């Protein structure tokens, strides 16, 4: 009980630590304040063929639309133009930078004051800038943004994800870059570490749910790295990660692994078979989008993938809530891990849909809540495994326990003796065969209840004479077998004598009765080539000598080659 509470405290301390670590970069991002900017989309008949000289000279200003929130979002294949100005002069001394956050695979061109040609910016490819973190495209404004001056932006839509705009001093960009990289490193490290642990546990325990969990984490890491651009500077990263097809593929297989893991962790087939059957539909949709993306890229894959994800999330949240309300532990763990994830997913998705102005740190919160969910699930999985282990240990302890005395039963003590014989290498081990004298009359005169109590007290007294490594079991009715590893015969005879005295020396008090009992004991020492049967047979023969000698005594088995024998009373 005490151990359990301590373990749970350790789990929750870990979770709190992670939450605090989550809060730090989010708080840092939230406190970032840049220069105000005004964003105006430009409406032109032919967006692809705009005359930039005319644009910069202000001759196309008639096409400018009213200012919008500083967010740029285009459908795939669309071309868009925007003008950026600032209501206050942005001084060059502050080394201001234009930031386009969460760029993913988008590419932009910018015409900034002080430069003739366009500045290109992208996460991947020849225009990738290794001098900044991958959270944003950063375009330098060498002359700042004086009153009346403008930055012109051109973008071809490659991803439908929105990009937020900001103008910030270089010092702040660097500070936020560092916080971002630290945060991403923490999140990705947690996920990678958990994945490695999951695969190690899979090999160690043979539990398939660990493999699905590990798979889910690997796909999650790939997804975050692909969308976030963490690996953008590695050779081949552009080819591997910068296509929507890559995201559909890892996303689809990630959901498949997650579903297979959660159904086995929650035991959905046994506990909620209806939800389990529906979950197969979500899994099939996600699998079809993943397999489809392996073959070719098509629009239906994104639809199937999103449907699979939404259906699976709803079913898992519903299933875990039902199980949690029933007091089921895995249900509670899944609910606790999915809730923050679902909240962040909904906030990010509604932000993407333009329903509200989502803050830039929300995407990082989503990644963090995923790491938190994975950590909770890993703890839950380990906890479930421990519980299974405890149940199994309990069951195997019950299988070898004698109910009446709490000692090992016959098969338990025989197994223990077999092991001890193997470990002893054939010599130096003694056993004592202990039998209660004239027990039948106790049963006959006082009844079985008193007889049982008598067996309990005698077993306790005999056990109290043993050392930590010795074994004792109830061999049958009123017979006990004691195994004394690494004990010479003389010492074993002395131990047996102490057992005899412990029972004979004091009467057994049962209710109002005071019964005098005694033991007959036969001791035998192991010899090379001994088996459990041959050794027990010699101890039994020695016990017979004690019985024949008048009971209440200890006899040592004769060692044929040495002719040793001992007896006491
Ligand atoms: N109360 C009780 N009695 C048991 C239990 N198992 C066996 N017995 C009784 O233990 C007695 C064993 O008797 P024996 O060992 O044959 O004979 P004994 O009377 O002890 O005499 P000696 O062994 O020759 O000294 C029998 O009467 C069994 O019914 C048990 O679990 N509870």
UniProtKB/TrEMBL annotation:
Its EC number is 2.7.7.65. It catalyses: 2 GTP = 3',3'-c-di-GMP + 2 diphosphate. Keywords: Membrane, Transmembrane, Transmembrane helix. It is an enzyme of class 2 (transferase). CDD domains: GGDEF (cd01949). The chain crosses the membrane at residues 181-203, 210-226, 246-266, 278-296, 302-325, 337-355, 361-382. InterPro entries: 7TMR_DISM_rcpt_extracell_dom1 (IPR011623), Diguanylate_Cyclase (IPR050469), GGDEF_dom (IPR000160), Nucleotide_cyclase (IPR029787), Rev_trsase/Diguanyl_cyclase (IPR043128). The keyword Transmembrane helix applies. Residues 427-559 form the GGDEF domain. NCBIfam families: GGDEF. This is diguanylate cyclase.
């Amino acid at each position: 009980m005490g151990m359990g509470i301590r373990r749970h405290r350790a789990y929750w301390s870990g979770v709190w630590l992670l939450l605090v670590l989550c809060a730090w970069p989010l708080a840092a991002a939230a406190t970032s304040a840049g220069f105000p900017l005004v964003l105006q989309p430009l409406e032109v008949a032919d967006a692809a063929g705009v005359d930039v000289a005319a644009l910069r000279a202000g001759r196309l200003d008639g096409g400018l639309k009213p200012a919008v929130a500083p967010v740029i979002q285009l459908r795939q294949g669309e071309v868009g133009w925007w003008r950026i100005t600032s209501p206050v002069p942005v001084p060059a001394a502050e080394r201001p930078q234009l930031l386009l956050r969460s760029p993913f695979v988008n590419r932009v061109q910018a015409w900034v004051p002080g430069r003739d040609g366009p500045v290109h910016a992208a996460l991947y490819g020849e225009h990738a800038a290794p001098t900044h973190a991958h959270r944003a495209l950063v375009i330098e404004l060498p002359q700042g943004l004086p009153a009346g001056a403008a930055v012109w932006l051109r973008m071809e839509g490659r991803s439908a994800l929105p990009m937020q705009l900001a103008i910030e001093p270089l010092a702040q960009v660097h500070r936020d870059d560092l916080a971002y990289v630290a945060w991403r490193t923490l999140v990705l490290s947690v996920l990678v570490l958990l994945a490695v642990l999951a695969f190690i546990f899979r090999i160690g325990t043979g539990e398939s749910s660990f493999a699905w969990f590990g798979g889910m984490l690997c796909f999650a890491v790939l997804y975050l790295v692909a969308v976030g651009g963490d690996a953008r500077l590695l050779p081949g990263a552009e080819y591997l990660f910068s296509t929507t097809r890559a995201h559909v593929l890892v996303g689809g297989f990630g959901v498949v692994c997650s579903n297979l893991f959660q159904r086995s962790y929650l035991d959905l087939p046994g506990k909620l078979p209806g939800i389990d059957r529906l979950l197969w539909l979500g899994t099939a949709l996600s699998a079809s989008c993943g397999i489809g993306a392996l073959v070719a890229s098509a629009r239906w894959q994104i639809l199937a993938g999103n449907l699979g994800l939404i259906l699976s999330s709803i079913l898992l949240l519903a299933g875990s809530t039902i199980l949690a309300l029933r007091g089921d532990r895995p249900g509670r763990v899944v609910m606790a891990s999915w809730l923050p994830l679902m909240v962040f997913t909904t906030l990010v998705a509604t932000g993407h849909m333009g329903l509200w102005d989502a803050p830039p740190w929300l995407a990082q919160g989503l990644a963090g809540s995923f790491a938190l969910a994975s950590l909770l699930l890993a703890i839950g999985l380990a906890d479930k495994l421990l519980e299974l282990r405890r149940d199994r240990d309990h069951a195997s302890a019950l299988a070898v326990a004698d109910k009446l005395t709490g000692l090992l039963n016959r098969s338990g003590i025989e197994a223990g003796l077999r092991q001890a014989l193997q470990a002893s290498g054939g010599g130096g081990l003694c056993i004592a065969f202990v039998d209660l004298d004239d027990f039948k009359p106790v049963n006959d005169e006082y009844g079985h209840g008193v007889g049982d109590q008598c067996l309990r007290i005698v077993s306790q007294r005999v056990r109290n004479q043993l050392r930590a490594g010795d074994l004792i079991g109830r061999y049958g009715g009123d017979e006990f077998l004691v195994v004394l590893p690494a004990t010479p015969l003389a010492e074993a005879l002395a131990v047996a004598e102490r057992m005899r005295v412990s029972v004979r020396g004091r009467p057994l008090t049962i209710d109002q009765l005071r019964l005098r009992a005694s033991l007959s004991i036969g001791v035998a020492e192991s010899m090379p080539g001994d088996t459990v049967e041959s050794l027990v047979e010699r101890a039994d023969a020695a016990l017979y000598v004690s019985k024949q000698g008048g009971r209440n005594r200890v006899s040592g088995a004769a060692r044929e080659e040495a002719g040793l024998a001992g007896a006491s009373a």
